[in-house]
Amino acid sequence: MSEMERKRLIAIRGQCKASFTRIETYISKDPPTFTIEDLEVRKRILVENYNTFKDTALNLILLGETATEEEEIEDRFLAISASLDRYIKSQH
Questions:
Q1: Residue 49 is inside which H or E element, if any?
Q2: Is 9 exposed, middle or buried (0-12, 13-18, 19+ CB in 10 A)?
Q3: Distance CA 87, CA 81 (A)
Q4: How confident is the model at residue 83 (pLDDT cuts 50, 70, 90)?
Q5: Cα pseudo-dihedral 6, 9, 11, 17, rounded to 10
Q6: CB 21 within 8 A of CB 73
Q7: pLDDT value at position 32?
Q8: pLDDT at site 31
Q9: What residue ranges do the domains of the chain occupy?
Q10: Which SS3 state, helix, strand or coil, does residue 64 take?
C-alpha cells in the first residue's frame, strides 16, 4: 500500500475516535433529555465505528504501524456501550 493509503487509514482511524468522543460528550448530558431512539442510533453508530476502527488498525499494522491505541479504544468502546445500554434500559 502506498503512503497515500496509510494517510487515508490514519484519517479514518481519527474519524472513528472523534465519533467516540462525540458520543461520550452526548451521554454526559442530563439523561432525562435522551430519547430511546437517540440512544439506539448512537449505539449503532458506536458499534459501526468500533468495527471500522478495528479493521483500519489491522490494515495499519499490516503496513508496519505499531499498535498503540487498540486497548484504550476497546476500553472506551466498552464503557460507552455499557452506559448507552444502561440508559436504554432505564427508558423502557
A1: helix 36-62
A2: buried
A3: 10
A4: very high
A5: -140
A6: no
A7: 66
A8: 59
A9: 3-91
A10: coil
Q: What is the pLDDT of residue 90?
A: 86
In the numeric block, which cell numbers belong to residue 20?
467516540
DSSP H or E run through 2:
none
Q: With a cut of 70, say whether residue 53 has pLDDT above it.
A: yes
The Cα–Cα gap between 24 and 26 comes to: 5
Long-range contacts of 26-30 (CB under 8 A, 24+ apart): 27/80, 27/83, 27/84, 27/87
What are 28-39's pLDDT values in tens digits?
Answer: 877 567 889 999
Reading the block at residue 72, the C-alpha cell is: 484504550
Cell representation of residue 73? 479504544
